[in-house]
């Protein structure tokens, strides 16, 4: 699963991080704040670090990283520019710099905390939260919805079973159906 309430660049990194877990055949959960890795020990820590490195290398290959663009440049502007070029979060670029000793841990932590705060503020300013039923319908897809409701209406699925398949509460299934039938 990828949390779609985070920035798109973060979602992309998470997707490749989780691919790393699949390739290592080990489950895991990536949190919004990766400082939890510092509290892990042994194999758990090694796997998280390896999955992060795997995702970073896929998205921003070290061999093509523009190290020279950071000499004498404004750090924030350079990180922003490179993140846009690679279509990744600023944090991925900053992490590359930290891992190679270009910046220290304190600079990394301060910038990441600042960017996360900016993101939370921008989310708080947005109006509304969207329509739950419209979002659910898009996630599930027309074909799956048609199949599920067809099985339910034919008596082959209970309301609770259909709710489980749709990943929602039973009371919301009928509301979803009303939303879809009502033409949105």
Oligomer: single chain
> Which residues sit in consecutive blocks of at least 5 with pLDDT less than 50?
none
- Percent range for β-strand residues: under 5%
Structural class: mainly alpha
Taking the sheet with the most strands, its summary is: none
* Helical proportion, percent range: 55-70%
- N-to-C SSE string, H for helix and E for strand: HHHHHHHHH
Tell me the distance between the termini.
27 Å
Estimate the mean pLDDT confidence.
Answer: 82
Please count the beta strands (DSSP E, at least 2 residues each): 0
Write down the domain tally: 2
Radius of gyration, taken over Cα atoms and rounded to an integer in Å:
21 Å
Helices, by number, come to 9
Q: So what's the overall shape?
A: elongated
Question: Can you characterise this structure?
Answer:
There is one protein chain. The chain has 184 residues and is an all-alpha fold. The protein folds into 2 domains: 8-125, no CATH class; 132-181. It has helices spanning 8-24, 42-59, 75-86, 90-99, 105-125, 132-140, 142-153, 159-166, 170-181. Helix 6 crosses helix 9. The radius of gyration is 21 Å and the shape is elongated.
What order do the helices and strands come in, and which of them pair?
Layout: H1 8-24, H2 42-59, H3 75-86, H4 90-99, H5 105-125, H6 132-140, H7 142-153, H8 159-166, H9 170-181
